[in-house]
Amino acid sequence: MIARLRHITVRQWMILALSNLLLVAALGMLMRLKMLLPLPAINQKFLLHAHSHFAFSGWVSHALMVLMAAVIANRKSHENLSLKYQVFLVANLLASYGMLVGFFFQGYGPFSIFTSSVSVVISYGFAVLSWRDMTKADRKSSGYRWFRAALVFLVLSSIGTFFLAYLMASNNTDSRLQLASVYFYLHFQYNGWFFFACMGLIQHWLIQKKVTLTHTRMVYWLFAWTCPVTYLLSILWWDMPGWLYAIAVAAVVGQGTAWIAWIRAWAIKLPLFRHHIPMVSKWLFLGVVTAATIKFTLQGLSVIPSLSQLSYGFRPIVIGYLHLVLLVIISLFIIAYAYLNRSLTSNRPAFVSTFILVAGIVLNELLLMAQGIAGLTYVYIKHIPLLLAFAAAIILIGLTGLLWSQRSE
Description:
Keywords: Membrane, Transmembrane, Transmembrane helix. The chain crosses the membrane at residues 12-33, 53-73, 85-105, 111-129, 149-168, 188-207, 219-237, 243-262, 283-305, 317-340, 352-380, 386-404. The chain is mostly helical. The protein has a domain at 1-138. The chain has 14 helices and no strands. It has helices at residues 2-6, 10-34, 44-72, 83-106, 110-136, 143-169, 175-208, 216-229, 242-273, 279-301, 305-312, 315-340, 348-376, 384-405. Helix 6 packs antiparallel against helix 7 (175-208). The longest helix is centred in the middle third of the chain and has 34 residues, at 175-208.
């Protein structure tokens, strides 16, 4: 077992991550079908928990751990990681599959809670190992500061999970506390661990290409210091003093400024390195940047308390926003970066399959947005559940084709 484990390459780990994304998409498709067909054997709430937990741990966290470990250990896509990282990756996958099975069959039951706790402990171990190796490395990379912040926010996000578990164990039914706990976890996963890890990866790639962007240190510190503060945007419906609200607004302005500065720096230096980027990655990165700009714009609008209460209290809008970040920004970034570092091979079938995948994701987002607006305006749109199932099927087809395109490489 150990001998086999030593020979798994970075590319093979990423193919496995993509297989996990296919499984996430299949669960999403099943959720859409459950809204159209009886399927009495399937508990929709259990299915939702299995879908979301596995998406976070089995897909995004696994992929980011692989890519970060490859950077820290200076490994190419065809090379294998050191055994210590391989062990953590296997452990994380076992815990992820355990959560998938546990939540699917029992929801928040003993087994699913146990595997969730194990997953958190594994993330702590990975954070300690990565931090230590970055400290020992002779190579200096500005991408490391993004990685360190990502690891801090990864650990910090677990507070929300543990506090929610405490509320459930103590039979505390305060819905505001439960919602605040869930949003705490989501915020520091999405806007902390996921975002900072992605920024660290692209920053490291730029350094490899000997490209230095202006204002990178300022951009980093603005995002790092404002990330904890912008959690307040998730709980503006909770009465807070005016001075705290003012700090939240200032944080939003800071992040908007940082994002604009980073985009402008990219636009100035783009001619220096665009020939190094595969065509499929160029289009994917363009989509990611566009979606991230929309995300920061929506974040700016959310400082209006009435809009915040309306959006965070309306489920379709919350789901649409979460999918915007997880699917359009984070997932497409990971796939684009995998093409960039050759963990995924760029060929014609891969390009076509990626186009199908993106089409399904965009259709899914447009339908969720339409559903949210329709709900707010009390307008009924026919066949939305059927159309969402159709979008899920397109995503599933795209991912299946993408995996198939990598079979002989």
